[in-house]
Amino acid sequence: MGAFLFFLQVDQMPEIFKRKIVKLLKHSDYTPLKLAHLAKTLGVSDEDYPQFELAFEQLRQAGQVIIGSRNLVSLPCLSGRITGTFRANPRGFGFVVPLEPNSHGNLFIPPNATANAMTGDIVAAIVVKKGNQTEQRRISGKIVEILERAKNRFVGTLLRTGEGWLVQPDGTAFVEPVSVDDVTAKGAKQKDKVVVEILSYQTDKHLARGVIIDVLGKAGRYETEIKSIITQYHLPGEFNENHLKQARLASDEFNPDQPDSREDVTKKTIITIDPPTAKDFDDAISLEKDPQGNWVLGIHIADVSNFVIPDSPLDNEAKSRGNSVYLPEKTIPMLPEILSNGICSLQPDQKRFVKSVYLTYDLQANILSRNFTNSVICSTQRLTYQQADRILKGHTKGAKPEVVKLLKNMETLSRAIEKRRQKNGMIHLDLPEIELVMDKSGRVVDALAADNSYPHTIIEMFMVEANDAVASLLDRLNINFMRRIHPEPDCLTLKNLSKLARAFGFGIPANPDRSAIQNLLAAVKNTDSSFGVNLAVLRSFEKAQYSPLHIGHYALASTHYCHFTSPIRRYADLIVHRILDCYLKQCMDSAGPNHILSDTDLAEIGKHITFTEQRAEDAEKELKTVLILQMLNNHIGEELDCVITGLAGFGVFAQSRKFGIDGLIQITDLGPDQWKYNQKAQCIVGLNSGYEIGLGKAIKARIISVNVAARQLNLSPVEPLIDTPKKAAKKKIGNRRQKVRTRRRGKRK
After folding, report:
1. Residue 439: CB partners within 8 Å, gap ≥ 6?
2. Strand 192-200 and strand 208-218: pairing?
3. What radius of gyration do the chain's Cα atoms show?
4. 186: which DSSP letter?
5. 665, 721 contact by CB (below 8 A)
6. Above pLDDT 90, what percent of the chain?
7. CA angle 263-269-271, nearest 5°?
8. Residue 738 above 70 pLDDT?
C-alpha cells in the first residue's frame, strides 16, 4: 500500500512542479535562471529532479516556457497578438490578463485603446509601446478585437435625463450608462433598480443600447440591493419542485430509532457551539477520558451523505451551488431547508445521524489514535459562542453541570492542540472582522467588532484536527479525494515580505520560514503595525482552493488536509463523506464512480467549487460595501480612523478600521509636494521632501463623497500629511526606517 501511495504522489509531481515553475516565472521580481539553479531555487531534491525535468519539458513543448540565451529559463515574451481577459478600471484604463503566462505579466491598456471592452471580456490585443531601462515605463497595448463578451446583462439604476432614459450600471464592469427605450413596458420608474440586456455595445460615438428585462425595486432599499447582488453574481434562486420532493422524501423516510449498524451515543454529553443566528448545525463535540487518562475527543458531523443520493437531481443542484451563501440577513443554502435546517441539523434533544471522528490524545495533545464510525447522537445543548464564553469565564448560573465540565475540558484540550500546532508551524493571522448593525428596514446604522472569544478557537482547532485526521486516513487508503490545498509562497514573494517587514521596523530573514513569520506576527501583536503586517502576510499567501493535488496546507502546517466538517454548506465535504462512508461500510472495492471520483472529475469539480466559494465571498463583500456606503453617504464631512492598505500612482487606499471599507485619497490631497509611487519599495515618496508613505500607516481621513453605484468612497486627510516641503523634511511619515533618496538627472557625480 505504501508503494502505491508513492507512485500516486509521483504521478502528481509533474503537475505540482508545473504550478511551481510557472508561478515563480510569473513573479515580477524573477530573474532568468538556468534550469539547475531554478530547481535549487524551488527546493527540488535530487530524488525529485527527474520529475521536475519532466514537468519543465512538458511546459517547454507546450510553449509555456522558453530557454533563451545562455540557457536561461523564462516565460515567452509579450509580443504579437495577445489573447486574454480584460479588467477595466473606473479611471478609464485597464489591463489584459493573458491566457498564457508571459515574462511581462498583464498588458496595460490606456483609456483611448480599450475598444470599449468591459471587465471579463475575452479580447485580442497588440503591444504598441515598450518602456526602456531608463524610463521604467510599463508596456502598453491596444485592444484590436473583442472575441467574447463576458455578459450582456447588467444591474443598474434607471435615471431620466434631458436626452432620455439611461441605466447607470452598478459596480465597475461597465462604467458608462446604457440608453434604454420604452421603460413603461416593465413598469419601471425613476431611480428603480433594473436589469438591462445589451442590444448594441458602446462605440466611440454612441452609448450602449439596451432593454429593461426586470425591475428589482426602488434603489437603496435592502430587498432591492439583495436582489441586485443575487442577479449580478448569478447566485442560485429557489429550489425547484424536483429538489424539494427529493428532500421531503428523505425527511419522511428518516427514522432515527432505526439506526441500522450505527453506534448509539445518544447518552453522551454532546454540545454544539454556533453563531446566534445559525440554524444549520453541522458539528457537535464530546470529550471524555479513557481508562489510561487520555483525552478522547469526539467530533460528530452531520451525515448529509445519508440523505443526498449521488448524481440525483438534488445532488447535482448542490454540486452546482457548491456552497451556501451567507449575505447580511439572508442565507442562500446549498441544500433545501428541510434538510439544512431540519433532519441534517444537529438540533438539541433530537436524534441525528452523524459521522464521528474519535481522536485520542495524551496530555500534551499528541494524537495517539484515530477512529471513525457512523453514529446516532442526541445533542445535549445548543450554545452560542457568547454563551460558551460566559460559562468559561465563570458565569455558570442556569447551565447544566455536565455542560460546564465539558466546556472547561474542551478549553484545556484546545489550548494544548493550539500549542502543538503552533510549534509545528501553524500560522494564525490577526485581522479584525466586523459585524454590521442593521435596523428593521435593513439599513446599516453601525458596525461592531465581531466576537472573537476563545470558543471560536476551540471549535476551529477541533474542526482542523478532524479534517486533518480524515485526509490522513484517505491518503493511507491511496484514494483520490477532494483536498483543501494551500500552496507554500514562492521564494520571491517571501523575499518581498521580508523587505516589507523591515520597512515596518521588524527584521526577519530574507527567505522567512513559518517560524520567522510566526515570530513576526507575535512581535507586532497589539502594536500600531499589527494590521499592516498581518495584511502583508495575508497578501503574500495564495488563496486556499479545492484540488486533488497532494500539496498540503501551508498556513495550517498540514501535510494531509481536506474539508470534512461542514457537509450541510460545502459540497467538497459531501464528496469526502461519501468516500468515508464506503470505508466504514467496507465496500471500497465495489464503490462506484459516483462515490470515489477520478482525478479528472475531482479537478473539474474542484475548480468549480473554488469559483463558487470565491463568488460567495465577493457577493457578501460587495453587499456589505453597498450597505455601508449608503450609510456613509449621510455622514459626508465626518472623520474616520483609517489605515493605509494600498498604494497606486494616483493615490492611496485607506481602510476604515470601524467599517472595514476602503476609500481613495487622491495623490494631490496628500500635501504640497510632488508625490511618486515607488512600486519596488512599496511606498509613495515626496520628491521634494523625501517623505515616504507606506502600508500600515494610521491616518485620520474625512469623507469627501460617496458613489454607491460605482462602489466608491472618496477621502482626504483631516490634515495635510505635510505643510510645506521644507517643514516636512524634519518629520517622518510612514513605517519605514530609511528615507528614499530621490536622484535627479545631472546631480550625481
Report:
1. 445
2. antiparallel
3. 28
4. G
5. no
6. 71
7. 100
8. no
